[in-house]
Amino acid sequence: MAYVLGFFAADGTLIRTQRGGFYLEFEIIDRGLLMRIRNLLGSTHKVSRRKRKNWQPSYRLQIGSKGMYFDLLRLGIGPRKSKTIQLPRIPSDYFADFLRGYFDGDGNLIAKPYSRVSRPSPIYVFRARFTSGSRVFLEQLQDKILNSVSINGKLMTYGNAWRLSYENTRCQKLMNFMYKSGELADLIYLRRKYRIFQKSKYFAGVA
User: Fold this and answer.
1) What are the chain's domains?
2) Sheet with 55-64: strands ordered across
3) Closest among 10, 58, 51, 66 to 34, alpha carbons compared
4) What is the mean pLDDT of residues 138-161?
């Protein structure tokens, strides 16, 4: 469930209607992942497909639950959370799952070679990045990662938002923490991002 909380913190929406309805909404392009999230939440609500002009379709899950709505509010995740969200209190045993969920929602991983004229062979760069409109959230996330994994990241502006980045050996260590050193049998994760991590291990010679 910590994974779902992390994913919702990144990519979810809280909706309160004028008629007194309370809803949680997910909308992503990966239907398989959304179905797993639905199962974890014990939901039977419909997953709908939405066409988007000049873009691949997305899938939406909307769950009506006043209890979940106010639980998320108590955790600091509100309807207009992008600039105001703060890191919820996550027990240490579940932080890797929360972090992986947030990464799958609002993170990315780069693993590719860079060539320079002054070097005969390319340099391979591995970089994990977390994005948020809330600087406070990323500062809190940075501190929690430092306490959990003993690595520090670099926080910088990114347009109207903020980015927290980890490179090379720190990136590898962070990914191993999130994916629990490859013990994936019971984990929920976005497979296309995990494949990039596997690629980075190959470049680093540790695959």
Assistant:
1) 1-79 (3.10.28.10), 103-205 (3.10.28.10)
2) 12-16, 22-28, 55-64, 47-52
3) 58
4) 96
- pTM confidence score: 0.90
Token pair of 141 as six digits: 């996330």
Structure tokens at 113: 């070679």
Angle between helices 2-11 and 31-40 (to 10 degrees): 130
Tokens of 185: 């049998």
State the Cα–Cα distance between residues 168 and 108, nearest whole angstrom: 14
d(CA 54, CA 175): 33
Range in 29-38, 47-56, 81-90, 140-149 with the lowest mean pLDDT: 47-56
- pLDDT confidence bin for 202, thresholds 50/70/90: low
CA distances from 187 to 94, 100, 178 (A): 12, 10, 10
* Residue 46 CA neighbour count, 13 Å, CB half: 3
- The predicted pLDDT at position 121 comes to 74
